[in-house]
Amino acid sequence: MENKKQFNVKNFLIKYALIILILLLWVVYGVNSPYFFTVKNFKSLIVNAAPLLIYATGMTYILILGEIDLSIGSIGAVSASLWIMSMTEKDMPLAAAFGIAILTGLICGTVNAFLIIKLKINAFMVTLGMQFLLRGVCYLVVHGEQILTPQKVRDFAKLRLFTLSPLFYIGLLVAIIMMLVYKFTSYGRKVQATGCNKEAAKLVGVNVDRTKFIAFVLCGGLAGLAGAFQCINVGMLLPNGLGDGSEFLAITACVLGGTSLLGGVGSIIPGTLLGVVFYYSIENGLGLMGANVYVYPIVRGIVIFLAMVTDSLKRSIGTSRK
Amino acid sequence: MKKRWLGVALTVTMTATMLGAGAATVSAAEGGETLKIGFSWSHKNDSLFYSFDESLAKVMDETCKEHGYDAVEWVHVVAEDNADKQSSDISDLITQDCDVIVAYAFDNVAIASSAQECKDAGIPFVLYDRNMAEDAEPKADLFIGLDTYNQAYLAGKEFFQMLKDDGVEANSIISIMGATNDNNALNREQGFTDAAKEFGLEIKQTVPSDWDAEKALTGFTAAFQANPECNVVLIASDFIVTAVQSVLEANDAWYPKGEEGHVYICSQDGFPTGIKFMQDGYMDYSGMYNVDGMAENFASAIYEIIEGTYKGEAELYSDPLVVNAEDIESLELWGKNYMDEAE
Prior knowledge:
Strand content of chain B: 15-25%
CATH architecture of the largest domain in chain B: 3-Layer(aba) Sandwich
CATH class of chain A: Mainly Alpha
Number of helices of chain A: 14
Number of strands of chain B: 13
Number of strands of chain A: 2
Structural class of chain B: alpha/beta
Shape of chain A: globular
Largest sheet of chain B: 7 strands, mixed
Oligomer: heterodimer
CATH topology of the largest domain in chain B: Rossmann fold
CATH superfamily of the largest domain in chain B: Response regulator
Strand order of the largest sheet of chain A: 1-2
Distance between the termini of chain B: 13 Å
Order of helices and strands of chain A: HHHHHHEHHHHHEHHH
Low-confidence stretches of chain B: 1-21
Largest sheet of chain A: 2 strands, antiparallel
Largest interface: A-B, 54 and 56 residues
Radius of gyration of chain A: 20 Å
Low-confidence stretches of chain A: none
Strand order of the largest sheet of chain B: 1-3-2-4-5-6-12
Order of helices and strands of chain B: HEEHEHEHEEHEHEHEHEHEHEE
Distance between the termini of chain A: 25 Å
Shape of chain B: elongated
Number of domains of chain B: 2
Helix content of chain A: over 70%
């Protein structure tokens, strides 16, 4: 006898809620603005979104593990400060400067990981504290000054490969690598196992502490790179603004993309990638339509609300199946 | 500049030292009677705030002796944009027996409770740069500020006059405003709007930035694509002008004045980046902070405020400095003191 799966509209809508929302949104924007469905618009959208994609990629691992990292924006700011100073003060080549940014992020991530895993301090408290501390470090390092990106950075930003900025390719490459690691390596499986059930993971021999430690370090390193990318996009280092609130945007993008705040569930591609695209589509479309300035925060609020509702509904479906 | 690298090493120690305590400085020769001023900052993290601080310290050093003080002691506390912390900071300053308390308010309504607390303690309370909301009570004893409406209105008028004189037709005007909950940002937007109206122009699209360069970048990217004919941009503060630069560069529209394709830009504040872009011909006009004028206003009233004999205006406004690209080299501007950051 043929075993037919019954099609459930409700489950389908919830499962593909984000894609449906993106398509609906694009249709609305496309109808209202002749500039929305243009190659130029999509190019600028994905280049502007590259830093958030990198932040959110690291955050996806953290959320899947059932943890949180509120310090990534400040890690990005500190890393970007040292990144830009290594070029303006020490005349380092761009590649080495990127190395400094990533290394700074890795060090910050290691400190987070040490405090959370080794000293058993709550991740929320540790990373919130680090958020303030690192922002202070950023101010002290640059003395609150705004620093313009040097010419070599501007030249790098102008490079085009198939008419697209290198920021886009690097961002996408990072997301693909992290997705492959998650799906096809033993470390990725350990992340999944730990996020689903920490105790069960321990029983089957997963070193839960090491798995989490590595994730926090990776998340820090990616935040370092993302901070430098943010600087490239805006053309300067703004110690009081760079990365500020990026942690919440990253969490929003992850949750929109299907990553659960309770851990155990999530994906980078397509999940987080779509979440980032959705968030930037909203901002982009409002700008193209010339929306009233007071509409922006309302729409941002609705997006976060939608993210939470979607997450809740998905979990309820998951629970009812058990 | 090596100090910055040294700063990294000292940071942890300094952070620990600064936690929970205001940074006190005595800025003139010690001995005799010292004037103790408590300053509660909403935040203090960019060169404009350092400039406020330095200019006030300088003018108070210069004037304290003629008013019977041998020295001025400043106690600075920073609320990190948190209204509760600012309230608590001001309570701490009251406990420290300051002669006067000055605040750069984070919240223009919540600050009224601190004004009441100072009143109850018999300590004069002064607001700096950001005024209390109109319906908030009790008022501060004095407000020192810049007329932010005029900042944009006067700069905008001269800017639009220049366009008219040069025979430039404003095809489409995009304005990048600050935060929608900041009176100064709203005043500036209104000032620009009114100035444009006087020349029969209107702002085609306003982009909210929340004083965030990334939001300005995203918003202006879209606005410029929706208005590709745009050749005039108004900016609420020139600390976000690099976001405009990034978008114009990406659209092959970043050229100095005199070259084909130049987009005319009028901005505000006078941050070093803005000054550099004016010197290089990319930015045309700016309504800049008159930082020294504000400090002089402060010194002109503060001694009488402390003695309780002040009879002048409760709100002292400085006029902005309207500067164009041609005049910029000859003028003394606060942002020039921090130009190394824009090099």
